[in-house]
Sequence to fold (339 residues):
Amino acid sequence: MKILVTGGLGYIGSHTSVKLIEAGYTPIIVDNLYNSKKSVLKRINEITGQQPLFYEADIRNKTDLKPIFAQHDIEAVIHFAGLKAVGESVKKPLAYYEVNVYGTITLLDVMSEYQVNNIIFSSSATVYGDKNPSPFIESYPTGNITNPYGWSKFMVEQCLMDLQKAEPEWSVTILRYFNPVGAHPSGLMGEDPQGVPNNLMPYISQVAIGKHGFLSIYGNDYPTKDGTGVRDYVHVEDLATGHVCALQKLNQSGTHIYNLGNGSGNSVLEVVSAFSKACGQQIPYKMMPRRAGDIAAFWSDASKAQKELNWQAHYQLEDMAKDSWRWQQKNPTGYPDEE
Ligand code: NAD
Ligand code: UD1
Fold:
């Protein structure tokens, strides 16, 4: 069964493509290489023994997409492609709305034309905004979002729900990821941030490898267990499996929304401690003021995914730290340009 994976060379898309192959699906990857490298394909091959078909194509461009749909009998689309840096989205909102919202609408239009009515969409816990108490449940109202990236996810969710209402044959699955971290246990695939990472785990990894002198911890006066921010970290391998589980909803039209998270929170200091253990050295850190726009703590209620998709996160924080560190050590400068 052919599954079109947009953004399939990226962090979550590459891990999902491996799981798809392992589950017997045929992923077809579409990516414009904006935030990824072609060498990911060889890594997928090294892990699975199969190299997925790849099209260098832009989701905003119908002339890129149509021949792919014309040539293949595509059963469903897993849609990862997009821009994801929160801070950048505040500075370049139109770029975020263009790629994430207009790009998705373009993709949906082409899907409609070729009667492919099944989509799984990468959304984010950011759509819950900063007013809901944890654990976040899928039925909470969304909104009160503080940045254009988050609003772009909110808007795409709305487009998908409206489309499904108008054309009931559609099957729409919206997956709201919490904080994806970790890497493939082989050390062959992982997160490859461009420039200085904004997110916690990749920054700690780069401190451990010596690229930065210390970690800045943004706030130790939050009303949390140790004063530092609390998040629901979920291993990218678990997330990838979540997409394979979501494919089982394919034959059920409707809109299905699921949180993908561990269902519990860890503080920044707990992440630092797990990583220090994984890499065998103390991660140096300094306490800094809070980061603008941060929420003290949030985590998921992931029981709906467990009940309906038979999915549950298995990896613990220690595994996430170990796998991130293995990837970082084996690939200190990320993926090579060519392999
Ligand atoms: P990523 O940047 O590693 O992967 C996205 C991929 O999409 C990249 O390979 C990039 O080259 C490609 N892409 C970007 N614009 C494109 C375009 N116009 N046409 C075709 N391809 C394009 O990001 P990721 O971490 O793997 O995230 C995947 C999805 O999950 C994104 O939609 C992101 O918003 C969402 N998400 C990510 C996180 C996270 O923390 N990583 C959390 C919640 C949601
Ligand atoms: C961020 C995004 C969110 C996205 C998520 C994906 C913001 C406001 N939100 O969430 O939309 O879905 O990434 O993983 O950017 N921290 C430090 N020092 C650092 C980096 C982070 O102390 O150098 C702290 C943060 O204050 C926070 C925790 O670590 O308490 C996690 O931060 P981060 O990895 O950036 O994720 P989020 O802020 O949850």
